[in-house]
Amino acid sequence: MHKDELLRIANDRLYPSLRNPNYLVLRSRRLIFTKWLQSLNEGITVLDIGGRYQPYRTLLSGKAVKYIALDLQQTDFVDVVGNGENIPFNDESFDLVIATGVFEYFYKPHEAAEDIHRVLKPGGILLMSTASVAPRFVDEECWRYMPRGLRSVMSPFKQLTIIPEVSSLGGLCRFINLAFHDFLKLKPLKVFYEVTACPVLNLIGMSLEAVHLTAND
C-alpha cells in the first residue's frame, strides 16, 4: 500500500464523511481523543499499537518527541513489526500507548493489557478504543466488550475511565448503517446507499446525540 493511500485512510478515519457508516463513532472518537491529548505535556514518547495508518498522530503535533508504530503488517508508517500481546520493548519505555480497534483481535486480552502496562512509565497512559456493539468487521476478530469486561481486562491499571463514544440511540443508528452497508454486496447498491440513506441515518444519529435524550450507553 502506497503512502498516499495510507494517508487517505488515516484522514478518512480522523475526519469521516457523512457517507461513512461508521461516521458517528469515528467523529466522537476524534473529539474524545483531542480533549484527552490536549491535556498532555510536551516531550512524551508514544507507542501506537496497530499503527499501520496512525490517524491520531496529528493530534499529538508538538507533543511527541518519539512516536513508534507497532503492527503485524509492515507499511511505510510501521517502525516495528510485532504483536501487541508480546511487545518487543523494555519496561517503562513509553509515556503514552495508543491502541484503537486492536483489543478485539487479541487472543489473550488480559495478557495484552499487562504487557502494555509493563512498557508504560510510572504515571503513563493507555488511550484505547474498542467495539462494544457492532457487526463483525473481519473474521480475525475475537471479542466485543462491555464496561465490566473492560474493567476486568484493564485490572493492571490503577485508574480507568470508560467513555461511550455514542449513546444507545446513536449506537442504534450506527449499527443499522453498518448492517445495511454490509448486507448490500453489489457495488452499485452499496454506492447508492452511501449517498442516500447512510448520510440521513448519520444526521439523525448526530441530532439524537446532540439533544441528549438518553445517557444510556
Strand order of the largest sheet: 3-2-1-4-5
Kindly provide the radius of gyration, computed on alpha-carbon positions and rounded to a whole number of angstroms: 18 Å
The H-and-E topology, N to C, reads as HHEEEEHEHHHH
Which structural class best describes the helix and strand composition?
A: alpha/beta
Short synopsis of the structure:
The chain is α/β, with parallel strands linked by helices.
Output the keywords:
15% strand, 7 helices, 39% helix, globular, 217 residues, 5-stranded parallel β-sheet, alpha/beta, 5 strands
Question: How does this structure look, described?
Answer:
This protein is α/β, with parallel strands linked by helices. Helices cover 39% and strands 15% of the residues. A five-stranded parallel sheet has the order 3-2-1-4-5. α5 packs antiparallel against α7. It is globular, with a radius of gyration of 18 Å. The termini are far apart. The mean pLDDT is 95.
Write the topology of this structure.
Layout: H1 3-14, H2 23-38, E1 44-49, E2 64-71, E3 80-81, E4 94-100, H3 109-119, E5 120-129, H4 147-153, H5 168-183, H6 187-195, H7 197-210
Parallel strand pairs: 1-2, 1-4, 2-3, 4-5
